Amino acid sequence: MTTRVAIVGGSGKLGSIIRHVVEAEAGYEVHAVLGSRDELSAIEGADLVIDASTPAVSIDVVRAAIERRVNVLVGTSGWSAERIALVRPLVAAAGTGAVFIPNFSLGSVLGTALSAAAAPFFASIEIVEAHRETKVDSPSGTAVRTAELIAAARESIGPVASPHVDQRARGQQVASVPIHSLRRPGVIARQEVVLSGPGESLTLTHDTVDPALAYAPGIRLALAHAREARGVIVGLDAFLDIGLRSPGTDDEEPVREDGVPGQVARATSA
């Protein structure tokens, strides 16, 4: 059986990579390619909708798929745990599936999982992420996901130590973790998680060098599960047995900071 795929944002950087993977994958065909401003009625007849649009459009894409009882695979980032929680009852009522992938890179997923696994052992944790200068918003979806899983892993011991966060130069706090975003030429995507304790520090770094090569295996993995998924699934690690499972990876509830829901980041790519 051939799966007909509608790709929203199919002409963008990530969307183009996804389109090439779908076209090359046996059992899948591109049913429609939409721009971020196109009418979403064009997804009619698709068996799976893939969203690689923008944060402003992404929520409409997800709603359009749910209304038509079609599963949706979301590659657009900016979906924090808080925002995803709002979609859960809609997906449950429709009896469909919504798969949210903050980053299709297997290395990035491992870096996030390792950061969450190490989080309970270090009092101070900060994230530095860098993307090309054309990425106009921050922090990245990957950084938000990493911060949320770090907070979940530390739920029993409390938030990370982050002094002087009232100062703007200390970065944006997501689930108590300061995130510092760099936008500069000469870089594609890079994330460093710096964990510090008495007398030592551990830095976990992931670099994306070639997006097409880095994302293709993760896109194929997500495709294989997205058509038959039920409910809300977050993160490529849901389909990988990497031997590291930190508390909160199911994202049933949004991470909260002193009773206030975690910040909703605005990011357009990993």
Question: What's a concise summary of this model?
Answer:
The chain has about 270 residues and is of the alpha/beta class. It is built from 6 helices and 13 strands. The C terminus is likely disordered.
Description:
- There is one protein chain.
- The chain is of the alpha/beta class and 270 residues long.
- The chain is built from 6 helices and 13 strands.
- The chain has helices at residues 13-24, 55-67, 81-94, 106-118, 141-153, 211-226; strands spanning 3-8, 28-34, 48-51, 71-74, 97-100, 124-131, 172-174, 177-183, 189-197, 200-208, 231-234, 256-257, 260-261.
- The strands form 3 sheets. It has a 6-stranded parallel β-sheet with strand order 2-1-3-4-5-11, sandwiched between helices.
- The chain is globular.
- It starts with a strand and ends in a 9-residue tail after the last strand.
- Mean pLDDT is 90; it is low at 246-270.
Question: Top keywords for this entry?
Answer:
single chain, 270 residues, alpha/beta, six-stranded parallel β-sheet, five-stranded mixed β-sheet, 6 helices, 13 strands, disordered C terminus
Strand runs, count: 13
Q: Helix/strand/pairing class, anyone?
A: alpha/beta
Strands ordered across the widest β-sheet: 2-1-3-4-5-11
Helical fraction: 25-40%
Order of helices and strands: EHEEHEHEHEHEEEEHEEE
What's the shape?
Answer: globular
- Major pleated sheet: 6 strands, parallel
Give the low-confidence spans.
246-270
Question: How big is the Rg?
Answer: 18 Å
Number of helices: 6
Strand proportion, as a percent range, falls in 25-35%
Rounded average pLDDT: 90
**Alpha-carbon distance between the two ends:** 31 Å
